[in-house]
């Protein structure tokens, strides 16, 4: 098998004195959807922040496409091809939907390709085209999530990381977004997904990691994990 | 049945041109646990804000214990016994857990002195199981503990009606189970509870009655089982797939 | 050997720094000259003079603090008050409390002297004398002058001048077409000047600090506001004004307390006005203005009182100063009951060809008045 | 701080100031009085700025209004001490009214609003010449007595004001009011939700922050004997007081007063020794303090004596 | 009638200058959340640089404009990068105190080196008469430059990706980092732009107003008022705020006398603070 697109080995990280990740090992292959699930505070968001360069790992290595990126600045990692859609969407107030999307392409200079990609995002989420002149933070929660994902796509990442896709969204909206992600993956996008709702996570992904206390507790194909009674007892009681 | 403890009569709220609530009417009976669901932006949080005086209703009446409280300030609501939690938890970050709860007992709970309030705060912390963390700064708490703190603070205020805005969002299953027990315990002590939640598991396991908001309008109000199979609710909120999953669970 | 100590809280930085530096220059000149001559005569011995200056940064509160420091820590026997009526009041209050004679060199508003202070003396004549004579002269020269517009800075001295001129003008039959004050900190006079323009006055009279007046003159030009007579008090008394405005200063009239063109003779280190002028010019390269003159004269007041008293006794010195009656290069100095120098005919000046000419009084007149150039 | 060391340091501090006439000349006594005055101003500011966390810049307005009300009363024949009392009460009432309006603003906007009050007061006082004398300023009757007696007298008055402000600080700190103000500081919405009448509490804090400033202003006016709008309503004064409080430790009981003492003394030293550069040196000290002592001087104690902190 | 027209024109010209003076201050406040007490001194520093270049070497202010702008940008950038960035997320009072301290140093240095003597550049460009109204050419030029600069900045903020990045950083620093935006650099650039605009205003002002350190506080005060009137952090806000303030001062000065002109400005600001804290054209959430 070829080298995975992203691979972490023995990554530790945290906030100042507080260590959160205790030696994480993880791999994402090109073309996959990988889900990260785990209890609250397990360190999922911390992991994504460490990958995207907002936090520097205190040990271990993070390799992306054959080069070490651990501890690099966020802009460098983004340039390398990793986009991070943060928890809570974090759209920019005071900027239109369109400007928010364009900010996703901040580091890019290929004007024509940017315009094409914008068009593509609008095709993926037609509601955004309708609302493109509206202040992004006046969208409803689901629309905001679409805008956030769209903004992530705009950097044309090779790996798209989404934190808490469904948090605070109505079940119907989650279904809708899930469909969009599947479409995106079909078009070749590699996705690393953090999701609190384990059922949704397993449905959307090929493989999953279960994170506990800053370490990987289980990993495997999503379909298998979903059938595993020990997993469903701990995580799947609706 | 006696008069509802809290009753909304034709309450509307507009933000500029946006109608966040339109002509909402319902009542909560004393001791009842009621769930409030609806899509994002339906107006759930706005409804709580209007009841507690954080926002001023545009029209309609809000009756609490037979009195129109539509013009009250938040602090008056708190003193009357209308407590709430925030969707985004709002502790006093630099104060200890105990001090946070003491504030609730002192101002909302009508404690006579800071000392008395502290005693009462200890009891609430005991009740929610946070007593061991009493002297930690609130800012250092993990999310689940922070949500518990929010509950303890509300409890210290001797609430008659407690409105919980997504207190379970972001908690994992075992944490949710703990929270459920706690909310049940609170309800058993006679407090009327209104739960806002997107997690159907929580809503359904606690409340026999559901209210559904959609585009600021109350589109359904009735027994939970009926509501979740109501076509309009499925269309507006649950979505077909989820509704099917729910149905399966009930049958299975 | 004992020395005579004179204390001076000065504005060496802050808003009044330029004025403060003028005081600093002449006082130092005076002290140097006195000490070179062996000191001041006190009784049968000569005593050196020590001048102790502190910068009060143009802040009133600090001025009073420093006056106190000078008296308590440095044990000065005399105080020189700083520039301006407001700060003079503050320092004079301290001097009064400690019964230290305070010579105010640059305060001309009667309100400073009407507080029954027994230890405050001022070398400037009351500014009341500046207005009546001016109206009279201008009316004589330009009998068709009917209306006057007055714009003044809301601050002790400029305000009293503005009110004074309006009163004097009315008393002599002129109509006051416009009279307003502008607050400290005004950076734009366009509104006031446009209003003045609309009243088409024969005479425009503006008071303020140099910086205000430069701005006002410039804006008058910009907005095409003019009148046959334009007076700015005390603008042309300062070389900063004429230098800052260049040609635009031409034609502007003003009054002053002293001008180096006058020729007085008297006692002290500089026997004649010319002697002072020469020395000043040699030292600084510029012309002295009334601030320089008045401050240097303040030293002579102290010298004279010491000589007459012959001792350093506080009470005697005060009485001696009160009884001052001397002639100096700056003119006669004799204090009235309120401690102010007696009124005298003050020079009325005009900028002509970018230099200062004296229009009155007749004794020192060196040019005829001209109308404002168009 | 535990009560005992707190009271001890408070008494020692006040005693050192009060004893100034015993160990220093008039100039030292004067400096002590100025320390006491700024101490009172900074302690007052602490109610709104430290406890409540509202960045108020109104100090100079209260100080100046106090000076003017006191001066006007004295000029119309009211005995001096009564005039001071009237000034304090009148300005407190003014602050309560103003607070009701201004405290609806938060954060930067409140800061700006409170600064604008200073400027507006200056402009209004200076244009209302019929009452205030406008730019001419006002003279007050000079207090009779030898300079030494007067200086001691005013030192004592300033000390009384300082002591009173500290006493009230201690009382507030231990009361419901203090608790509520700290809640507001932390999170105003949450405070309202637990039942704190935030408006009333904030107005109370704002009023407390005014009353001692007014007393100090009125006293200061009687002391100098002359006031004018420019010197009475100085933005610099306002900012200086805030810097003092931050320097000592905002929100602590003694911090602001200690900060005031440190600031005044530093100012004295620099400005006596570095005529041309005193302002810059003071600025440098401020910059350095922001970087190395962000919690104020009182945090030094905690750093030097870990475990000694309460 | 003529007098009203003249008053209107006076107000608009003054207003454009106010806008130019305030826009940098507003941006720094809005984006960095820093009330920059140095702003007044920056303006005067720009003025001094222009004056001395003109006085000593006869360099025309218009030529000095880009030079001063570049120098001031560098100064602002360096100050932010080296000092202010270290406390940029601290509470208002901390950053305000820091810039206050820095201002004391700059003020002192300028007074020391340049003295307090008011300086002014006299261009003597005359005036144009349009019927009953008079338009002084140098002020007109200043107004034009001020407007041009402000509009230029608007274009940059609106159309360029740096502009979008500035807004993004202002709204959500963390999320901006995820867009690959280097926030510390954007902060420094923003502070640099703030200083640049102050310096540019100083160049324009040197030909119109006396340049002296005594007036730093006055200009800072105007910047405050303009920001609140127009709304924080946006270029159109500063423009509208400046024009409104200029008009209010001009008309108040005409109707109620110059003594009330500044009072009217401050009253307007207080009223707006209380009724529309977002300012006349402010966007919700910009506070
Ligand atoms: N900025 C921070 N400073 C200090 N500690 C933090 C910070 N952010 C998170 N933590 C702590 O790090 C731990 C892991 O948090 P993280 O957000 O990575 O969890 P998560 O798995 O994403 O949980 P969630 O499901 O709530 O998003 C938690 O204990 C949390 O309290
Ligand atoms: N202060 C406000 N000003 C303007 N619009 C508001 C305000 N508060 C809420 N809204 C709007 O009112 C609508 C209802 O919002 P609300 O927060 O009540 O929804 P919700 O049902 O609680 O949604 P969620 O489930 O996402 O929390 C939304 O469209 C929201 O954008
Ligand atoms: Mg997370
Ligand atoms: Mg909500």
TrEMBL record, chain A:
Annotated ranges, domain ABC transporter: 6-238
Keyword terms, alphabetized: Amino-acid transport, ATP-binding, Nucleotide-binding, Transport
Keyword Zinc: no
Matches recorded under PROSITE patterns: ABC_TRANSPORTER_2
KW Magnesium (keyword) present: no
Gene3D superfamilies referenced in this protein's UniProt entry, alphabetically: P-loop containing nucleotide triphosphate hydrolases (3.40.50.300)
Pfam families: ABC_tran
Stretch forming the signal peptide: none
GO molecular function: ATP binding
Family stated for the protein in its record: Belongs to the ABC transporter superfamily.
Protein name: ABC transporter ATP-binding protein
Protein species of origin: Ancylobacter radicis
TrEMBL record, chain B:
Name this polypeptide is given: ABC transporter ATP-binding protein
ABC transporter domain span: 6-240
Keywords assigned by UniProt, alphabetized: ATP-binding, Nucleotide-binding, Transport
Pfam families listed in its UniProt record: ABC_tran, BCA_ABC_TP_C
Gene3D superfamilies named among the record's database cross-references: P-loop containing nucleotide triphosphate hydrolases
Organism, scientific name: Ancylobacter radicis
One Gene Ontology term of the molecular function aspect: ATP binding
Cleavable signal peptide: none
Automatic annotation (TrEMBL), chain D:
Transmembrane residue ranges: 6-24, 54-73, 80-103, 109-129, 150-172, 203-223, 235-265, 277-300
Location within or outside the cell: Cell membrane
Record's keyword terms, sorted: Cell membrane, Membrane, Transmembrane, Transmembrane helix
InterPro entries to which the protein is assigned, alphabetical: ABC_transp_permease, LivM-like
Superkingdom of the source species: Bacteria
Coiled coil: none
Topological category with respect to the lipid bilayer: Multi-pass membrane protein
Pfam families registered for this protein in UniProt: BPD_transp_2
Protein name per its UniProtKB record: Branched-chain amino acid ABC transporter permease
TrEMBL record, chain E:
Chain segments annotated as transmembrane: 12-32, 63-80, 92-114, 145-167, 187-211, 223-248, 260-279
Listed Pfam families: BPD_transp_2 (PF02653)
Localization terms from the record: Cell membrane
InterPro entries in the cross-refs: ABC_transp_permease, BCAA_transport_permease
Domain of life, per lineage: Bacteria
Family membership: Belongs to the binding-protein-dependent transport system permease family. LivHM subfamily.
Protein name per UniProt: Branched-chain amino acid ABC transporter permease
Organism: Ancylobacter radicis
